[in-house]
Amino acid sequence: FWDQISDVSEISKRHNMTEVDVIILSSAYNSKLKKTTTKGINSLLKSENNIKFNVYLLEGNPNAVYNFSKRVNVVYIDEKFGYHKFMNLGRKMGKAEYVVLCNNDLTYETGWATNIICEMKKEPDLLSASPFEPKNNSKSEPSYGYITGKQVNGWCIFQKRKIYDVIWDLDESFHFWCCDDDYGMSIKQKNLKHKLVKSSIVNHHEKGSQTLNTLKKETHFKLTNGGIKRFVEKYIISCGAISGRPRNPKSHYWWKGQLEK
What we know:
With 261 residues, this protein is α/β, with parallel strands linked by helices. The protein has helices at 2-14, 31-46, 83-91, 112-122, 164-167, 179-189, 210-213, 217-239, and strands spanning 18-26, 51-59, 72-76, 98-102, 106-108, 126-132, 156-160, 193-204, 242-244, 253-255.
């Protein structure tokens, strides 16, 4: 496995291609979920000609068999699920300058990664970005910011690896819900820029989580309510009041200095 990763890296160096490590989490416990993951990765690999994507697919189902090229490293995880925990694990498997944290239910338009990298080269202090999603993002929204669903699209976060020299690991006390909110808050507190790159197009095909919707009600509640509780403990209680997004005020919060009534 590690020899395979080394081979991919050496090929990239010889061809003078930009390397990007892409971490994708999957729990393909049925054919629909596996098809979604497969479609997303195939779309990713076809989206760029001058970028070498090193894909680390962290799969929770040991019986899910994939037929990808050497560019996709399938790693079967036999541990209790934790979104940030698994993303930290996947990130540390690679060494590329750029890292992308992705859901499995995405498709990628041509040039999406090139456009983000161009922005990061123009702005050396831009260490974090998200692509634009036509169905959910607005061209009229400010490009810079930390609001989940507006600038921070938690299903696809594009980073320079050196951001982790500042923020360290993602907070593994967040297992699923509010992981994107926590990430946005963590980089805001460090005064790190985050940009929604509107020329970079990635499609997020599922409203909510397919995997989450397959879980029992008790497990579903723990993953969602537990994340909200942890976020409140970390930011509301310790930092002050914050307000929620109007469409979903109980599950997503953002710092505004006061709590809206």
